[in-house]
Amino acid sequence: MAGLMTISSREDLIAALQQDSEEFQEAVAQLPAEAFERGVYEQGWNARQLLAHIAAIEWTYPRLIERAEQRAGGEDVPQGGGAGFDMDAYNAKQVARRDDQPVEQLLTEFRRNRAETIDAIRATDEELLKQPTRSAGGVEGTLLDVLEGVAVGHVREHVNDLLRGARSD
């Protein structure tokens, strides 16, 4: 993965999301077909299941923005990660829903969802990005910091998981 960039604005975040999207797709393209059935992640997921997780979770990032907008507008919207929310169960359910999808279909889902994430961020007022928030996984900070952590950092971590798994025989 390329060096980490300092993310301090909407434009920085968009650039990082675009860069990570390209690097993620390049990493997936490097994997031999058999790597998609090899375990690569602590949950016991193989590379295709990890790809399904990344594609699935991407749709949630614009929801962070929507909830922040609602709270800024005075609505009583709960923060993510509320009591009773089981992140592992949610992730397992999303991966299982995509169990029969081929790699290319998962990549298509990721690209579509990443484009929606970027569009949502592009349409977000810079001031909203300074508001405190929390993701469903419990990441807290400004909306900008949380989006960086979950949408950029999360994918970077999983790209490393994919590449490590592909190298281990």
Structure description:
By secondary structure, the protein is mostly helical. 59% of the residues lie in helices and 4% in strands. It is built from six helices and two strands; from the N terminus they run H-H-H-H-H-E-E-H. It has a two-stranded antiparallel ribbon with strand order 1-2. A hairpin with a 5-residue loop joins strand 1 (132-134) and strand 2 (140-142). It starts with 9 loop residues before the first helix and ends with a helix. The mean pLDDT is 87.
Name the shape in a single word: globular
Spell out the helices and strands N to C: HHHHHEEH
Class per helix and strand makeup: mainly alpha
Helix fraction, binned, reads 55-70%
- Mean pLDDT level: 87
**Main β-sheet: number of strands, strand sense, barrel status?**
2 strands, antiparallel
Uncertain regions: pLDDT < 50 for 5+ in a row?
none
Strand percent estimate: under 5%
Euclidean distance between termini CA atoms: 22 Å
Number of strands: 2
- Main sheet: which strands, in order across? 1-2
Give the C-alpha Rg. 16 Å
Please give the count of helices. Answer: 6
Tag the structure with descriptive keywords.
globular; single chain; mainly alpha; 169 residues
